Amino acid sequence: MRHERAEQKRRAKEGATSGTAAGLDMNVLVAEFKTLGVGLSPQESDAFLESFDANGDGRMSISEFTQVIAAAKRKETKTK
């Protein structure tokens, strides 16, 4: 289990460095979700990006990613 978690972190880091300073494209994000066991259909990935790509550039910036995490935390807090 520990090795598996380290491998997930390594892949996530590689994915993050394969983007540019402008952000990660959806192909990288979908691949990283898969390594975490979350499969997204093309429609789901489009909807995901559309929901959080505030500037419409087709990439997820660090600030947009931060908004995704904040939204997930808010949702989690509401369900507790």
Give the helix/strand layout.
Blueprint (H helix, E strand, L loop, with lengths): L1 H16 L6 E2 H10 L6 H11 L6 E2 L1 H18 L1
Antiparallel strand pairs: 1-2
Tell me how many strands there are.
2
What is the CA-atom radius of gyration, in angstroms? 13 Å
SS-based class: mainly alpha
By DSSP (H or I, 4+ residues per run), the number of helices equals 4
Give the termini distance in whole angstroms: 28 Å
What is the assigned CATH homologous superfamily?
Answer: EF-hand
Which fold name fills CATH's third level, the topology? Recoverin, domain 1
The main sheet orders its strands as: 1-2
Number of domains: 1
Sheet bearing the most strands, described? Answer: 2 strands, antiparallel
Unreliable spans: 15-19
Percent range for β-strand residues:
5-15%
CATH architecture: Orthogonal Bundle
Quick one: overall form? globular
CATH class: Mainly Alpha
Which series of helices and strands comes N to C?
HEHHEH
Q: What's the pLDDT, averaged over the residues?
A: 76
Verbal overview:
- Helix content is 69%, strand content 5%.
- It has one domain: Orthogonal Bundle (Recoverin, domain 1), CATH 1.10.238.
- Helix 1 runs antiparallel to helix 2.
- With 80 residues, it is mainly alpha-helical.
- The longest helix is centred in the last third of the chain and has 18 residues.
- A two-stranded antiparallel ribbon has the order 1-2.
